[in-house]
Amino acid sequence: MDLDFLKLYRNKTVQKELVRTSQHKEVAVKLGEQGFGKRPDVLLNAGDVVAFAKQGVTSFHVSEELWSNPLNLVTGMKKHEMEALRVGWDLILDVDCPFWILSKITTWLLVKSLREHGITGVTVKFSGNKGFHIAVPYESFPQTIDDKELRNLFPDAPRAIAGYLLHYIGDKHIIVRNNRVYFGSTFFIPFERLKAKTGKTEEELVQKFCTSCKKELKSVELKKKKIDFQCASCGNFLTVEEDKNQERFPQKFQQCPKCQKLMERMEYDITLCACGSNDYYTTFRYQSIIEVDTILISHRHLYRGLYSAHEKSGLVSISIDPRRILSFKKKQATLENLPFVLAQSFPFLDRKCAVPGEAEKLLRLAFEFSSERERDARGGKAKEVSEEFEQFQQAVPVELFPPCMHNILAGMKDGKKRAMFVFTNFLTSVGWTPDAIEELLLKWNQKNPEPLRENLIQGHVRYLRQKRSSQQTQRTPPPSCDNKMYYIDMGICTPDHLCKTIRNPLQYVRKKLRFLQQQRTSKPGSDKGGNKENNKRILSDGQKQRMQEAKKKYREFREQMKGKKEHKEKDKL
Length: 573
Fold this sequence. Notes:
This protein is α+β, with helices and mostly antiparallel strands. The protein is built from 17 helices and 22 strands. α5 (100-116) packs across α6. The longest helix has 32 residues, at 541-572. The termini are far apart. The model is unreliable at 243-249, 380-390 and 526-535 (pLDDT under 50).
């Protein structure tokens, strides 16, 4: 879609708002298909906007962080150097979803949840394509929390807040009932329509938990039948489960194997949970369909500026009334409708409306939730997987990577941020250092049709270095193979014969290493005509004992069959 960028940026109100929302922020300009210009840059007055537009600038992108002097920023700065320049940061929740209606619902629920936590200075703008930006100014937060300066808690604090809010709206404002998903108290989407719209299965969209013990039920099916046969004479018990592949239940009567009398049949339901409960409640897996850009938030992270154009959609990133999110339509963001939008004058990132310290409660709840989730991860499946692959102390060569990781390395057209998240978790788990990861990611980024900004990669690697320097030795494994959001949705799952035997990409590497080790230890010529002693499999004591027992049973079976055969021959005679 063609857009007159010069006409857009010549508008006095557009210039004023762009400059106002860019104060103390780093600015990056995009020159159409040429990509981003040199960083850092700033917008000091309205004349700068027009000057950039005349040079061919199509959009302006601003940082979430506030700096004393953005022009002093240098690529590759150390943590303490950046902290000396940073004076604060704004909370920007970047809601992005390929399903437009769900993007609007999520934004509406996030705004509703922020206000329920006592925050009044919440403003919203359309991102220009598929989502929205929700802003809470830095002035709404306390200057310190637990004797730590809040300005230095970036990006950890925004990540914690976004994760907590997604959990909050899933727990408080979404109900799955009568094959409908209710958002808030009035709006709902039929479950079948949601599955058809997203292409997700029921297991990917909802989680089911036991009402009694709160344990997650992996699959809730129809209640199975359990049948007991009890002998009234000797008291012997036999238990049989209903077989769904059979059209009828097992026989009505059973003969007791001890006293050969008929046993009485008793039938009852098997409980859904091991604790004996049949009741469960359902929660919505919001993260399976909604992307809130928090995982990859890093230092010098940018978002599209207010009233800045979107090159692909041809729309303008306009501010909107938070009360009109659900009724908002994309056609309102065209250049032709811009005068009407500007006349309404909905503020975005209005620091005058911020109440100092009103977001302290939200911040504390977010950090508590983040700490609990980390403890659960250390004691749960994540720790088990991480410990299982703790053997990778040296960097595993690229040749041993699974097909999905090779597909990422070949270059990505879409899903580059998710791919970087998966790939870095994989590389750290197989022994790669942050320096080696950064070098490989920069080479990979050059293969992408539309490369990511280098500072995004460098910021993500800097976060890995901080984890290592803070002695956080626990490795976070990549998502499991059954997580369709990452592998299948990104189009990188092309399994080979070995992939059928694994559940996680790390297991692929482990099996390959084991195979190579076996090849090295085996001597040449041991396969055919060589020394057979060298080709024997080494068994443990338990395996030897089980093999001896199996041989003994087989000999007894042969003796039994031989005796039956001799008995039949005697009968014939």
